[in-house]
Amino acid sequence: MAAHQTTSTSTPGFIDPMEAACSRFKDFLDVKRKKPRFTTLKDLETEVKHLERKQTGSSTTFKIGQSVDPIVKFLRRHSDAFDTMVQANPYPAALIWGSLKILLNVSHLMLTQLIGQFTVSSTS
User: Fold this and answer.
1) Which residues face 88 on adjacent strands?
2) Which domain of life does the protein's organism represent (predicted)?
3) Mean pLDDT in the chain?
4) Which residues pair with 5 in a beta bridge?
5) Alpha-carbon distance 11 to 66, whole Å?
6) Dist CA 12 CA 22 (whole Å)
7) Would you tell me which of 20, 21, 46, 90 could form a disulfide with 94, CB atoms 3.0–4.6 Å apart?
8) Tens digit of pLDDT for each residue in 39-74?
9) pTM score, two decimals?
10) Contact 118, 56 (CB under 8 A)
Protein backbone atom coordinates (compact mmCIF):
# COMPACT_ATOMS: atom_id res chain seq x y z
CA MET A 1 0.00 0.00 0.00
CA ALA A 2 1.47 3.32 -1.01
CA ALA A 3 1.71 6.09 1.54
CA HIS A 4 -0.37 9.22 1.04
CA GLN A 5 1.35 12.36 -0.13
CA THR A 6 0.72 15.41 1.96
CA THR A 7 0.14 18.87 0.56
CA SER A 8 0.99 20.73 3.77
CA THR A 9 4.73 20.72 3.14
CA SER A 10 6.56 22.99 0.81
CA THR A 11 8.48 20.13 -0.88
CA PRO A 12 6.51 18.42 -3.64
CA GLY A 13 6.41 14.62 -3.41
CA PHE A 14 7.26 14.61 0.32
CA ILE A 15 5.85 11.61 2.20
CA ASP A 16 5.04 12.35 5.82
CA PRO A 17 6.83 9.78 8.05
CA MET A 18 3.87 9.59 10.42
CA GLU A 19 1.44 8.84 7.62
CA ALA A 20 3.82 6.24 6.18
CA ALA A 21 4.05 4.54 9.58
CA CYS A 22 0.27 4.61 9.98
CA SER A 23 -0.27 3.08 6.56
CA ARG A 24 2.25 0.30 7.35
CA PHE A 25 0.39 -0.31 10.60
CA LYS A 26 -2.93 -0.53 8.79
CA ASP A 27 -1.43 -3.27 6.60
CA PHE A 28 -0.96 -5.36 9.74
CA LEU A 29 -4.57 -4.92 10.84
CA ASP A 30 -7.21 -7.51 10.22
CA VAL A 31 -8.64 -6.68 6.80
CA LYS A 32 -12.26 -7.63 7.62
CA ARG A 33 -12.66 -5.79 10.91
CA LYS A 34 -9.86 -3.21 10.75
CA LYS A 35 -8.92 -4.13 14.31
CA PRO A 36 -5.52 -5.24 15.59
CA ARG A 37 -4.92 -8.96 15.88
CA PHE A 38 -4.35 -9.58 19.57
CA THR A 39 -2.08 -12.29 20.91
CA THR A 40 -3.00 -14.19 24.03
CA LEU A 41 -0.60 -15.09 26.81
CA LYS A 42 -0.86 -18.75 25.80
CA ASP A 43 0.23 -17.87 22.23
CA LEU A 44 3.21 -15.96 23.60
CA GLU A 45 4.25 -18.84 25.88
CA THR A 46 3.96 -21.32 23.02
CA GLU A 47 6.11 -19.15 20.75
CA VAL A 48 8.78 -18.62 23.43
CA LYS A 49 8.99 -22.38 24.11
CA HIS A 50 9.26 -23.05 20.37
CA LEU A 51 12.10 -20.55 20.01
CA GLU A 52 13.90 -22.00 23.04
CA ARG A 53 13.71 -25.53 21.60
CA LYS A 54 14.98 -24.24 18.27
CA GLN A 55 17.87 -22.37 19.93
CA THR A 56 18.75 -25.32 22.17
CA GLY A 57 18.88 -27.67 19.21
CA SER A 58 21.06 -25.43 17.06
CA SER A 59 23.32 -23.83 19.68
CA THR A 60 26.92 -25.05 19.46
CA THR A 61 27.66 -23.52 22.85
CA PHE A 62 24.84 -25.49 24.44
CA LYS A 63 26.04 -28.74 22.84
CA ILE A 64 29.61 -28.17 24.05
CA GLY A 65 28.28 -27.28 27.49
CA GLN A 66 26.34 -30.53 27.68
CA SER A 67 29.41 -32.58 26.72
CA VAL A 68 31.74 -30.78 29.17
CA ASP A 69 29.25 -30.76 32.06
CA PRO A 70 29.99 -34.34 33.30
CA ILE A 71 33.74 -33.62 33.44
CA VAL A 72 33.19 -30.40 35.36
CA LYS A 73 30.84 -32.14 37.81
CA PHE A 74 33.40 -34.93 38.38
CA LEU A 75 36.26 -32.52 39.04
CA ARG A 76 34.13 -30.37 41.35
CA ARG A 77 33.01 -33.45 43.27
CA HIS A 78 36.64 -34.54 43.86
CA SER A 79 38.23 -31.08 44.18
CA ASP A 80 38.84 -31.54 47.92
CA ALA A 81 40.86 -34.68 47.21
CA PHE A 82 42.92 -32.81 44.61
CA ASP A 83 43.49 -30.00 47.12
CA THR A 84 44.86 -32.55 49.61
CA MET A 85 47.13 -34.18 47.00
CA VAL A 86 48.50 -30.79 45.96
CA GLN A 87 49.47 -30.01 49.56
CA ALA A 88 51.89 -32.95 49.51
CA ASN A 89 54.07 -31.37 46.83
CA PRO A 90 52.85 -27.81 46.41
CA TYR A 91 55.44 -26.23 44.11
CA PRO A 92 54.55 -27.50 40.61
CA ALA A 93 51.15 -28.93 41.44
CA ALA A 94 49.84 -25.81 43.17
CA LEU A 95 50.33 -23.65 40.08
CA ILE A 96 48.67 -26.18 37.81
CA TRP A 97 45.81 -27.11 40.16
CA GLY A 98 45.17 -23.49 41.14
CA SER A 99 44.78 -22.51 37.49
CA LEU A 100 42.59 -25.51 36.77
CA LYS A 101 40.43 -24.81 39.81
CA ILE A 102 39.79 -21.25 38.65
CA LEU A 103 38.79 -22.53 35.21
CA LEU A 104 36.68 -25.22 36.84
CA ASN A 105 34.77 -22.72 38.99
CA VAL A 106 34.20 -20.33 36.09
CA SER A 107 33.05 -23.11 33.78
CA HIS A 108 30.74 -24.45 36.48
CA LEU A 109 29.10 -21.04 36.86
CA MET A 110 28.72 -20.64 33.10
CA LEU A 111 27.32 -24.13 32.63
CA THR A 112 24.91 -23.69 35.51
CA GLN A 113 23.57 -20.50 33.97
CA LEU A 114 23.48 -21.87 30.40
CA ILE A 115 21.92 -25.23 31.11
CA GLY A 116 19.77 -23.92 33.96
CA GLN A 117 18.39 -21.19 31.73
CA PHE A 118 17.01 -23.70 29.25
CA THR A 119 15.80 -26.27 31.75
CA VAL A 120 14.01 -23.74 33.95
CA SER A 121 12.25 -22.04 31.07
CA SER A 122 11.29 -25.28 29.32
CA THR A 123 9.74 -26.80 32.45
CA SER A 124 7.54 -23.83 33.27
Assistant:
1) none
2) Eukaryota
3) 76
4) 15
5) 61
6) 20
7) 90
8) 788 888 888 888 877 777 777 877 787 788 888 888
9) 0.45
10) yes
